[in-house]
Amino acid sequence: MEYYKPENPLIVQPDHTILVETASEHYIDARDQLVRFAELIKSPEHIHTYRLTPLSIWNACSAGLNAEQISQCLTDFSKYPVPEHVLFEVKNYASRYGKLIIKAGPDGKLILAADDILLAEEIWHNKHVVLYLEKRLSDTEFLVEPLWRGKLKSTLTRIGFPAEDLAGYTDGDSLELQLREKTLDGENFTLREYQNEAADAFYAQGSARGGSGVIVLPCGAGKTIVGIASMVKQQATTLILTTSTTAVRQWRDELLDKTSLHEDQVGEYTGQRKEIKPVTIATYNIMTWRESKDSPFKHMGLFESNNWGLIVYDEVHLLPAPVFQFTASLQARRRLGLTATLVREDGKEDEVFSLIGPKKADVPWKILEHQGWIAKATCTEYRIPLQEEFRMTYAIADKRRKFRIASENISKLAIVKNIVQQHPNDQILIISMYLDQLKKIATFMDVPILTGQTPQRKRDELFEDFKSGKLQVLAVSKVANFAVDLPDASVAIQVSGTFGSRQEEAQRLGRILRPKAKDNQAYFYSLVTADTVEQEFAMKRQLFLCEQGYCYNIKDIEIEE
User: Could you tell me which of 561, 505, 515 has the C-alpha nearest to residue 381?
Assistant: First the structure.
C-alpha cells in the first residue's frame, strides 16, 4: 500500500466513525484535535471510537475551525488514506453553516436569505420550513415574523441547513458595572486569559455575530467568571438561570465580590424569595413550577418582567424542555449558555445549538490542567463483588432492579471507609444517588448528610463548615452535582451514579477540580459492583472523562464471605 503510516493513531472509516489507537505516540495530539469537531462514542482501553456529525462540525465552525483544518487533522493523523467521500462530507457539512442568514428586515420584521436560488427553492418547498415564512420577497429572500425566529432556526437545523442569525438583539435596559481589581477580602482579581478570550468570543465587539452562544469550560475553570465578564461587556440588565438555590446564592456572592454591583441591584428569585432587580438570579425549578401538569407555568413571566439585555443559562446542558420552548420566543435577547459538556441525556444538543446559540469557545480540560488552572486528577474504579446472599435476588430481577441492587452493594461501605482513611488530610465528598444508601453511609462513617430534603439553611451551614475545614467529610446526594462551589474538596467517592449519565460523571469529577494550594492533586473514586449492569453503565459514564483525556485505574476487590 502506497500510503501507510503505522505510527499514526487514526483509522477514518467510510461510515464517518474514527477509530483511535490509544497506544500511539501521537494519540494525545490527535485526541486534542478530534474533540474539537468529533463526538466520542465509546472508549474501551485500547481503541476509542469517534463520529463526525453535522452538529459536531457546525459547532466547530462556529468556534473558528474550517473544513480545511478539519480535513488536514484527519489526514495528518490517519494511518491510511482518508476516504474521499468523508472529506467531501466534511466540506459539505461545513459549507452549510452560513448558507442561510437571518437578518433585520422592514418594519421590525426579519428576512431569511439564501446564498443561491437552488437552496432558496428547497427551503420554499419544504413543508416544515414554509410554516414560518410569511412570503417570498425575491428569488433568495423570505419575510419572517420575529415571533418565529427560534422555531425557524430549530427547523432549519433539523433539515441540515443551520441559519446564521445576524438579525441583532434588543439592547435591554442599561446597567453600569465594572470588574473589581480587588475582591471584598482585598485579594487581587483579574481575568485569566482563557476567560477573557471566551467572553470576547461571545460578545464579538457587540456585533450581531456575537450575543448568542455557548461557552464550554471544565468544572472549576471559572464559568461563572466568564458569565460575569460577559455581563460587564454588555452593560445591561441580566437574568441568570441556574440549577439550585445554593447556586443562586453563589452567583450572587461572586457578583458582589468581583463587580461594582451593590446588594440592592442583585435579586434572588427562588421558592423562598421573589425579588426582581437589575440582575435577577432564578432557578430552573421555579421557572418550570406549576400547580398541576395542565396548569400554566406561573413564573415564566419572569422572562418578560424586565427589559433584559442578557439571559445567562448556567449548566445549559440541563435546560428543561419548557424553558427551551419559551426561549424560542426570546431570540431578540442576547443569550449565553455555560456548561462543562454539551452532552445532553435527552439528545437535544441541536436545540441548544439553535435556541441558545452555537459553541463560541471550548477549552479542553487537559490544557487547563497542564497550565495549573484546574487540579490534576487521578481516577480509580474499584470493582467489588456482590455478596453471595444477594446473587439470586439479582439474577431474577429486572434490569432497573438489578441496577439498584448492584448500586447498593453493602460491601461498598468498607471500601468507602478504607479510602477515607487513605486521605486523612483531605476534604472528601461521598456521593450517592440513593437516599437509603446515603443514610447508611452517614451512619457507618459518622458524617453529616446533605440531600434534596435538607433545608436550605442547613445546606448553607454544611457547605460553610466544609469550605472552612471545620468539616472534613460530607455525604451528599445528586444535589451537589451542579453549580456548587466547594473549592477545597480534593477527593470524591462515587458510591452510586445515575445509570449511564456522562454529564453526571463530568460534574462529579468537577466538584474536586478547583486548583489546590499544595500539590494541585485531586482523586476521584468510583465504586462499582463487578459483573453487573452497574459495571456496564459505569463504562458509559466514563466516556466523557476519556474524551477529556482521563483514564481510570481499575482495581478488583476481593471480599471475604
Answer: 505
| Residue 26: half-sphere exposure toward Cβ, Cα within 13 Å | 16
Spatial separation of the C-alpha atoms in residues 10 and 27, rounded to whole Å: 8
Q: Which CATH number fits domain 193-363: 3.30.870.10, 3.40.50.2300, 3.40.50.300, 3.40.630.30?
A: 3.40.50.300
- CATH 3.40.718.10 for domain 369-556, yes or no, is no
| Single-letter code of the amino acid located at 187 | E
Return the C-alpha cell found at 459: 445546606
CA distance 362 to 273: 35
Beta bridge partners of 468: none
Neighbour tally for 446: CB within 10 Å: 7
Q: How many CB atoms lie within 10 A of CB 332?
A: 15
Mean of the per-residue pLDDT values of the chain: 88
The stretches of 235-307 forming alpha helices (DSSP H) are 245-258, 284-287
Quickly count: other Cβ atoms within 10 Å of residue 207's Cβ. 10
Q: What is the chain's length?
A: 561
The CA distances from residue 6 to 71, 128, 430, in Å, are 19, 48, 44
Confidence of residue 244 (pLDDT cuts 50, 70, 90): confident
Domain ranges of the chain: 10-96, 100-165, 193-363, 369-556
Residue (of 55, 58, 56, 52) closest to 85 by Cα position: 52
Cα–Cα distances in angstroms (integers) from residue 35 to residues 213, 365, 517, 544, in the given order: 18, 11, 30, 11
The model carries a pTM of: 0.80
End-to-end CA distance of the chain: 57
Backbone angles phi, psi at 153, to 5 degrees: -60, -45
Q: How far apart are CA 255 and CA 91, in angstroms?
A: 43
Cell of 422: 487513605
Query: Residues with Cβ < 8 Å from 370, sequence gap 6 or more?
Result: none
| Alpha-carbon Rg for the chain in angstroms | 25
Q: Assess whether the region 193-363 and the region 369-556 belong to the same CATH fold.
A: yes
Each residue's pLDDT tens digit, 264-301: 999 999 988 999 999 999 999 898 888 888 888 888 88
Strand partners, 493: 430, 525
Give CA–CA dist 22/27, Å, rounded.
6
What is the distance, to the nearest Å, from the Cα of residue 1 to the centroid of all Cα atoms in its chain? Answer: 43
The C-alpha atoms of residue 288 and residue 223 are separated, in whole angstroms, by 24
